[in-house]
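pipeline: protein-struct stage 2 | run 1193 | HTH luxR-type domain-containing protein
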Amino acid sequence: MERVSDVVVVRGEAELFERTAHLFATATEISCAARDLHTWSVAHPTAPEREQAVRTTSVRKMYLPAVLFDPALAGHLRFMATHGARIRITEREVNETILLDRRIAIVAGDHVGGVRSYTVVSSPELVQGIQSLFEAAWAGGTDLEAYQARFTELGAREILEQLASGCKDETAARALGVGLRTYRRRVAELMDVLGASSRFQAGARAREAGLL
């Protein structure tokens, strides 16, 4: 462990858990930003504990859209949202961070030799700066329910089914009863939302994420 004033660097989740388990146990407000649910497994209680943890704690979690592409992870998010957690999806890159009671910040670092480092910050000035970055990203995110609703608003289910089938644009537009230009515009919007590089990939990812 390296220590500089009120900034502590730990190596690996085992050491992180050892150093911070008591903080998670007593926290009343937890804010989390991550690419997916794997970064912060230390912060994920086991299944029997999840419902109680969410009910007794103010929880905000923010992820990239890719988290919805894994049915298990998407199911976890829906479970958390159902039991009181506020979940948002952001299409912008995030700094993987956890904030506890606005007093402690934990920032995920890089993998070195197969082990990830984590920086635990308790300096009020630094925590306030990290909190401000989180709040800005949170304000630009979209609530999980609203994010998924965008698919419905665009007639996404039908369009995604056409994409997954691999049919031509003209055929798909005719089947849906819309103009070719309208169909292509909606396809472009859906691909952007899904972070897909191809139309077939957009359909496949939506199906994997339970969006179809």
